[in-house]
From TrEMBL:
It comes from the Eukaryota. Signal peptide: none annotated. InterPro entries: KCMF1/Dystrophin, Spectrin/alpha-actinin, Spectrin_repeat. The keyword Ribonucleoprotein does not apply. CDD domains: SPEC. GO terms for cellular component: plasma membrane; synapse. Keywords: Calcium, Cytoplasm, Cytoskeleton. This is Dystrophin-like protein. PANTHER family: DYSTROPHIN-1, E3 UBIQUITIN-PROTEIN LIGASE KCMF1. It comes from Stichopus japonicus. One of its GO terms (biological process) is synaptic signaling. It is found in: Cytoplasm.
């Protein structure tokens, strides 16, 4: 606006300079001519200074407008992306109870976190743009920019936190199931080893003569009871392990 006003007033300045030049020719005294020239020079100096300040301010405002538009575009883009990521977190399936399902969920979550990582430069760009605008704008405008930044940062932090929690829960659940599978496998191997002496004991007790020997019968009973106790302990241990998976935090 100031530059426009200066452009409108420019013809008046030129007319004033012409009049001063004409007056200098009419004024006979050198001292008067000098005074008149000094006044004209002062007017020109003030005009040039005003024009320079107006041009400089216009350039500053154009840069601020460009920065403001850039900040608006960046924040809009980031808000749309955050909304998408929040929706994905809200729609996450319940953590699976089978290894193959958990492995698929874990891969999906890792891809989700990789996408977050890829957007970090964009978040940094928004922060830098907002900080620059806050320094250049008025107090009220700077306050509004800071509110936008705080809202974005809160949503960004929440998405990062929730995604990390989800990853941790999936990893714990998968490790727990894999550990249970290992325990069951070890129990079955142990059971195979125990089965052999039990069968041997069964063969010894099949003859009529062996059943008549009370001492041997007592010994076999003791062996059988010990085998039963060992089996019970192993079963209880496996059962408790399966029912008490690792705590998810």
């Amino acid at each position: 606006k100031l530059l426009q006003d200066l452009a409108v007033k420019r013809p008046q300045l030129e007319d004033l300079v012409k009049q001063a030049d004409r007056l200098q020719g009419e004024v006979g005294e050198p001292e008067d001519q000098k005074t008149l020239q000094e006044k004209v020079d002062k007017i020109k100096e003030l005009w040039d200074a005003a024009k320079e300040k107006a041009s400089s301010r216009t350039e500053e405002l154009q840069i601020m407008l460009s920065d403001s538009q850039k900040f608006h575009e960046l924040t809009e883009e980031l808000m749309i992306w955050l909304t998408k990521m929040e929706k994905a977190l809200d729609e996450n399936e319940v953590i699976g109870t089978e290894i193959i399902i958990l492995q698929g969920q874990l891969e999906t979550q890792k891809a989700y976190i990789e996408e977050i990582e890829s957007w970090k430069p964009k978040m940094t760009e928004v922060q830098n743009s907002g900080e620059k605008l806050s320094k250049d704008f008025t107090l009220d405008d700077a306050g509004r920019i800071e509110q936008v930044m705080e809202s974005l940062m809160l949503r960004w932090t929440n998405v990062c936190s929730r995604s990390n929690v989800r990853l941790h829960e999936l990893e714990c659940a998968l490790n727990s199931l894999q550990d249970i599978d290992k325990q069951v496998h070890e129990f079955l191997l142990w059971l195979g080893k125990v089965e052999s002496p039990i069968k041997s004991l069964e063969r010894k007790t099949q003859t009529e003569e062996s059943r008549q020997d009370r001492e041997k019968v007592k010994e076999w009973q003791g062996q059988h009871q010990r085998s039963i106790l060992i089996c019970q302990k192993q079963l209880i241990s496996c059962f408790l392990h399966c029912k008490t998976p690792k705590r998810l935090v």
